[in-house]
Structure formats: C-alpha cells, structure tokens
Amino acid sequence: KEVVRKLITDMEQQSTSPINVLHAIRMTDKAWRSVYVTTISNCFKSCGFSMSQEEASEEPLEPDMSLEADWNKLQNTEVQFEDYVTCDEGLATTGTLTDAEIIDIVNQDINEDNVDENDVDHTDPAVFEPLISNKEARAAINTLRSFKM
Q1: 11 burial class (0-12, 13-18, 19+ CB within 10 angstroms)?
Q2: Is residue 8 within 8 Å of residue 74, measured between CB atoms?
Q3: Domain that holds residue 108
Q4: How far apart (Å, rounded) are the C-alpha atoms in residues 14 and 12?
Q5: Closest CA to 79 of 148, 10, 149
Q6: Does 56 share its domain with 129?
Q7: What does the pLDDT read at residue 48?
Q8: What is the mean pLDDT of each run of 10 residues along the chain (149 residues)?
Q9: Which one of 75, 79, 127, 136 has the lowest number of neighbouring Cβ atoms within 10 Å?
Q10: The pLDDT of residue 115
Q11: Is residue 52 part of a domain?
C-alpha cells in the first residue's frame, strides 16, 4: 500500500526516488502500526486458535478500498501489476562467502580499527558542542516519525 502511494507521489511530482532499506523498514513499520488488534485476533480465530467457537467473529473483513483506488490511479502507466509484484523476484538476497573470505574481512576490520586508534591525537581532544540538545533532537525525530505520508 505504501509503495503504491510512493509511486503515485513520484508520478504527481514527476520524479523518481528509489526505495532503500530504510524506506522499506519505515513503510513496513507504518503498515504494521495500521493493523488493528481485532484483525490479528480474527486471523488467529479463523485459523482455529480461539478459546471457543463462540468467540469467533462471523463478520467479514472489509476490503481496503483506498488500496484499490490507489492502484487504479496507476492503471494509466506502463506499469503492469504482474511487473509490480514480481519486480524483485530475480534479486539476489544472499551471497556465499568462503572461510578465507570471512577471515580476510575480519582481519581488514581489525587492521582498520588499529589504524584509526593510532591516528587519534590523545594530547588535545576536541570537544564538540551539539547544536541542539538531546531532548530537542528526540522531539524532532518523534515529530518526523509521526508525519503521515
């Protein structure tokens, strides 16, 4: 749902912006926070995990009409639904490293840490004053996170 909204926003602004891992995590978080407790409860009940059959709700779940409306906005583009669903099907998500490659990576990290420690001037440490306080920074982050896109 969030990806479709992002595509529509990009179309309206005549721009393209990639979705990186951070954006995906935020979209996932936003989607998870929009799930109602009753939806989760009904899923468990419909799979037979309820305490009694009397607790099971017989009311059907309402379809998400906004998602359908959002998808209909994209119908005038060259993007096909099948392309949207399978866009990352061939994407490599993992790789295999040999033991030697893992050892080399660890050794490089250790060597870089040692070089960084040797470069530090311990005689005159620089003290940087933050431009804003931690409390102000947290408030700003909370404000940004509560912003609904």
Answers
A1: middle
A2: yes
A3: 99-146
A4: 5
A5: 10
A6: no
A7: 78
A8: 84 85 88 88 81 54 68 72 77 81 87 65 56 81 75
A9: 127
A10: 64
A11: yes
How far apart, in whole angstroms, are the C-alpha atoms of residue 42 and residue 59? 10
Instruction: Give 114-144 as a DSSP string.
Output: HHHHHH--SSS---PPPSS-HHHHHHHHHHH
Q: What is the pLDDT of residue 119?
A: 56
Predicted pLDDT of residue 6: 83
Whether 66 and 120 share a structural domain: no
In the block, residue with structure tokens 């960084």? 116
Amino acid at 4: V
Same domain, 65 and 137: no
**What gap in Å lies between CA 58 and CA 39, rounded to an integer?**
13
Count structural domains, the chain: 2
Residues 12 and 75 in one domain: yes
Residue 146: phi and psi, rounded to 5, are -80, -10
CB atoms inside a 10 Å sphere around CB 7: 19
DSSP letter for 61, please.
P
